[in-house]
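INFO worker-7 received task bundle
INFO bundle size: 2
INFO processing item 0
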Amino acid sequence: MLNETAEQKEIRMFNLYKKDLEKLGKEHGQIRMNCIEYVCSFPKINPFEMAKVLKDSNYNIVFDDSSISRAENEKKRRKVEKIA
């Protein structure tokens, strides 16, 4: 995109990755938080903000990462919920 500001690029990238995650949510009926974190890691998007936007769009965000404790999963869930 020619003459695109950094802020415009950031918004465009966020929306591009959001659409991919929405497809996943529609296909599976849920989106796992660890998938959001993985997808957002490449373009350096805040995964908690992405999860909040998806949750506000009525997607079911699942905090069930078996590689971390229940307490850590719960901490991530609370962090998403705290975002205004």
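INFO item 0 finished
INFO processing item 1
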Amino acid sequence: MSKYYFTADTHFGHSNIIKYCHRPFKTIEEHDYRLIQLWNSRVKPEDTVFVLGDFCYKQLKTKTAKFYEDQLNGKIIFVKGNHDSNNGVKTCIQDIRIRLGGKNLLLIHRPEDVGYTDVDLVLCGHVHQHWKFKRIPTYNKTGKKVLFSADFCNVGVDQWNYMPVTINEILREYNKWLRERKFISL
């Protein structure tokens, strides 16, 4: 039976990401090798992985987005990230709504690009090591703040042991986060 996974901000080929995000790798070669190894240890060829932006750094002659994609198990659906304009990732998807695990989900790269939303949870990337879950006010179509706040889950590799995660893993951690803050769990 195939599974769905989520990840973001792998930044394959981006040597400065090790320093910026305090990733535990000495070189970009070690970084890329280890992330590919961790991905393939979980994801099977029949699985689907939603990559919520910033898959790899600038397209180089030998290490293109396709170079990395060919080494990874699963079918990949890319959501465009802020570093995905010149790296060979070919997607027109800015955001996407899906229903999975009994929840309505919005998948997007940058949390600040979410306006008013009526989903159960927003899955995003972009914020790297800064937070795993956060409640953020959303805005109506006129730009005025509304009382409703959306809950966000950062599916970036910096928060999930450098590998893609399933909806069940996300929801387990999310409900724990809600309980710790005395919010109502889903």
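INFO item 1 finished
INFO post-check item 1: The beta strands are 4-7, 48-52, 75-79, 95-100, 103-108, 121-124, 133-139, 145-154, 165-166.
INFO post-check item 1: The mean pLDDT is 89.
INFO worker-7 idle
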